[in-house]
Amino acid sequence: MAIAMDAEALARFLEEAFPQVAEDYVIEEVSEMALRVRLAVAERHLRPGGTVSGPAMFSLADVAVYLAVLAMVGPKALAVTTNCSIDFMRKPAAGQDLVAEARLLKLGRVLAVGDVMILPADGGAAVARATLTYSLPPER
Amino acid sequence: MAIAMDAEALARFLEEAFPQVAEDYVIEEVSEMALRVRLAVAERHLRPGGTVSGPAMFSLADVAVYLAVLAMVGPKALAVTTNCSIDFMRKPAAGQDLVAEARLLKLGRVLAVGDVMILPADGGAAVARATLTYSLPPER
Amino acid sequence: MAIAMDAEALARFLEEAFPQVAEDYVIEEVSEMALRVRLAVAERHLRPGGTVSGPAMFSLADVAVYLAVLAMVGPKALAVTTNCSIDFMRKPAAGQDLVAEARLLKLGRVLAVGDVMILPADGGAAVARATLTYSLPPER
Amino acid sequence: MAIAMDAEALARFLEEAFPQVAEDYVIEEVSEMALRVRLAVAERHLRPGGTVSGPAMFSLADVAVYLAVLAMVGPKALAVTTNCSIDFMRKPAAGQDLVAEARLLKLGRVLAVGDVMILPADGGAAVARATLTYSLPPER
Asked: Where does this protein have coiled-coil stretches (chains A, B, C, D) (predicted)?
């Protein structure tokens, strides 16, 4: 299955469709059914103590799988998150970016399922994992 | 089981511990093992089209159950979210606040489990539901 | 929204479609978007110690929401479970049946979402809770 | 971290502790923080049409991560499943075994988290995935 959008095309799409959050994310790699994106951690993502907040990790996981879907089906698809199960396993260390490695496990006619590991950008054990389901619009 | 913190005490705690987000939330009601909190929707919670974003709903669910736990165990407890399963069921209408109704299903020695419904403040069907698990520190 | 199948019709359907498990379940009450079903606990549902096994509780949750969907959309719908998030909160006491109280939170064109509480039939705190998503076939 | 129980020791433990289900499972490989187990599919695991039932897949996922925990912490640990999120992605083909590949993502003092892919034994795309959390007893 061919890639419909590469990292550059996805970054452009993000800027146009989600200007509020586009600068948070750096798309590092796009491959078939998989994508890696980095959260450029800023003050607004932190909790007291300098650790990345749960909502910021949720957002990263959501964006990672969303972009992995778009990479395969193209920018017209209006995928909607219907379910997320996320496990927070370790407190992220302060002062470093987080990387999300997403892979699509299913890309069906009406549903896509992907999982994602969230890792410290400088290496080390996963801080969180998530699985997300997207509903794909019928017009595909 | 007695309530350890009322709405006012919880609001004060939120302002001190999480000053970045405290103004987003209005604690409307605290009762035994249950709590209702409103997200005062602002520009930063929206996606294009004026609908509340997934991460903003995740945050609301997380805060609601977290506060319900604190209401029962008091401000010393450093509860940490370990798991969240969230279902996004309907697109929230633009231009209105969201309300989270949380209840604790379990408040054990090391784990607390709560679920939460997210509803439009002006009435109507639930837009999301979530279940969250918190790890409670041993020093309790 | 009218009920398409009552308790008797659902029980008959269960016997025809799932003869292996039909005798395990007693449908106690069917109402709009909600259903209560009892697991008639037998030896095969138990773990050593006499407590109901996790898989038996998973099955009960799955059947409860599945039947709640069928009650609303009728026997032709071939709903397929796509996701389940289940929390096991307390060990069920030995020697008593379990009851599942399911309600549908969403009954859309392609997806249905329901949650369910699993309670001891003789009363007491919930032993488990679950949320399930079903994919509904397009021929509806 | 050393392996505390190998495949043979785990199989013996399963026979003693869970004689009702032990014959269903063949432990194929044990390594650090990972384990592969096969469900020897029999009539009782099937739905009409010959496809493996959801509860049978839930059980397989649960056993796989449970055994992966025991492999690391030894037979004294009485791990209890507290949460499972499972996605059913494809209908398993009739007439073949299923294999679960589990890996532990966290093995903490009080909680263990593992995920698992369920695949057709003869190859092909994953039919389900799951993440499970276990509470570990304090006496460890």
From this structure: none
